[in-house]
Structures are given as C-alpha cells and as structure tokens.
Design a protein that fits this description.
- The chain is mostly helical and 310 residues long.
- It contains twelve helices and no strands.
- The radius of gyration is 26 Å and the shape is globular.
- The termini are far apart.
Length: 310
C-alpha cells in the first residue's frame, strides 16, 4: 500500500499539495480515533498528557512527519516520483549515520562501507541532477528524525499516530477553513468523488500502519526489514514504467550505488541475525545440559517396598 501511494495523490488534483496535506492530517485523526474506539485503547492518552517531555517529543514528531508528508505529496504531483523513492532507499543509511552522530553507536566495518557507498551515490546523483537531490534528502532525513523521536516517545503505532495528528488537527482545520472562506478550497467544489478521495487520505494513511503493526508481532524483524524495501521499489518502478520519468545513465549509476549500499547492509544484518540466533541456541542447549546434570546429581534413589512382617 505504501508503494502504491504515487497512484493516489494525483487523483486529488486540482487540490494543491498544502490542501491535500491538511486534509490528510485532519482525516487521519478521524480514522485512528475510530480504530482506538473500536479497540478501546485510550488509557495511554491520560498518561501522555501528564508527561510534558514526551508530549513535546510527540509535537516534534508531528512537525517532522508533516514536512515528510508535504514534500512527498508535492513530489508525486510534480512528476518527481523517482526522486521521492530514492529518499526511502537512502533512509536506512541516514538512520545509521544518525545513530553514529547522535547516539554514539558503533558500526561494523561493512556498515561503514555501506554508508560510504551511499554518500558516493548522493555525489553522483548531485552531478546527474545538476543539484543536490533535495527531495530525496528531505524525505530521508525527516523520516529518519521521525523514527528517532518515536523511539524516544515509545508509544504504539496507532497511539503515536493519534497523538501526532491530534497536534496537527487544529492547524490543519484552521488552514482548511481559511481556504474555504477565501474561495480556494476544492473540498466541495469538485464533486462527491473528489470529496471522498480527500476524506480517504485519512484511511490510506492509517490502514498501512495498522497492517504494519499487526505484521510486526507476527513476522521476524529481519524479514520485516527486508519487506520495507518493497515500498520504494514499487515507487521507483511506478516512476520509471508508469509515469515515464527520465532515467539518464548518471541517475542509473547513482541508484546502482544506493542499491549496492543497501545490499551490503542487508547481508551484514542477515549474518548478524544468524550469529545471534546461533549463539542463543547454543546458550539454550548449554543451559539445558547444565540443568540436566544438576538434576541428575541431586536426585536421590527411592527405597524399594518394605516387606512388613507380623
């Protein structure tokens, strides 16, 4: 569903990107509120309101994801789907770089190589575009920042989205009312189909996240990480094959470097996950054997039956 977003947003024309963004903020709150009512999950809201620091982090997350959504909508509606897909390809590399710079995490050698290859890809693409790929960089850095903040907030997927869109709701509603008063709103002027599509922005935002949350508790994390590459793959294919965006040789070279970096990261993560799983199995076997020895040593021989004589 995330990979097919580029097919949805062009349907919302003639609405401008900022109007689409405001509707997406407002109707997403409605969608997640309905989901929370159905699940009866509201206890977290009171706890969050009593924690100003977490609430401030939620506000930061709301601002950052608003930037991400706005730039993505603008890029799709201005024939920049391929450049937008690049942002989500390089997002893992930006996340790793943030981990090193902000969280002082240590990288394995292969991860350093992957980050270096990713940086080289951005240089090649900058030369190819004649400018830095700003759409890709804004999308990658905003989403990586969003992930970092959400990690610190530590709320569930639906709850976090509800809190973020609750903060976005009043500014979004104010902007939509201003558009209506000024006569620039398309919500009621382009027919019921257009209205339904704008309302649907809330559902298409919330539904993939609900599915992702359901998958996260059923699918191994390594598999989940690999599956997340499908979204930018679909977006890239749509940009090249459906929207017929230009892909000169230097752009192919830049993407090839990005894919090489991601392949290195994926292979390294796969090896690390297998080593961890093997170590856990060995620990389990060792602990089980030690327990069996202890049990055998402490077991006493039960006496046989005594023949009682009168």
């Amino acid at each position: 569903m995330w990979g097919l977003f580029p097919l949805y947003f062009p349907l919302l024309k003639p609405a401008e990107p900022f109007e689409v963004l405001a509707h997406r903020m407002a109707w997403t709150l409605v969608a997640v509120a309905v989901a929370l009512l159905a699940l009866r999950r509201w206890a977290w809201a009171g706890e969050l309101l009593r924690q100003p620091r977490r609430l401030a982090l939620v506000a930061v997350a709301a601002g950052v994801i608003a930037v991400n959504w706005g730039v993505y909508i603008w890029s799709v509606n201005n024939d920049r789907v391929v450049e937008a897909s690049l942002g989500y390809f390089i997002n893992p590399l930006v996340t790793i770089a943030m981990g090193v710079l902000l969280l002082k995490e240590r990288l394995r050698p292969v991860q350093w190589v992957a980050v270096g290859v990713g940086f080289a890809a951005v240089v090649v693409l900058t030369v190819g575009y004649g400018r830095p790929p700003w759409i890709s960089l804004v999308l990658a850095f905003s989403f990586a920042t969003y992930g970092l903040v959400k990690k610190k907030v530590n709320l569930g997927g639906i709850e976090s989205l509800a809190a973020e869109t609750a903060i976005q709701f009043l500014p979004a509603l104010g902007f939509l009312l201003w558009l209506t008063v000024s006569g620039d709103s398309t919500f009621t002027t382009e027919g019921p189909g257009h209205t339904a599509l704008l309302v649907g922005t809330g559902l298409i935002t919330a539904l993939p996240l609900v599915c992702f949350g359901a998958a996260a508790i059923r699918v191994p994390l390594s598999t989940l990480g690999l599956l997340q590459y499908l979204a930018p793959v679909f977006q890239f294919l749509l940009g090249v094959l459906y929207f017929r965006e230009a892909m000169p040789a230097e752009r192919w070279a830049g993407f090839a470097l990005v894919w090489l970096a991601l392949s290195l990261l994926t292979a390294d993560a796969w090896r690390s996950a297998r080593r961890t799983a093997r170590a856990l199995r060995e620990e389990t076997v060792t602990a089980g054997a030690a327990g069996a020895v202890r049990n055998a040593g402490s077991a006493s021989v039960e006496p046989g039956p005594v023949n009682a004589r009168p």
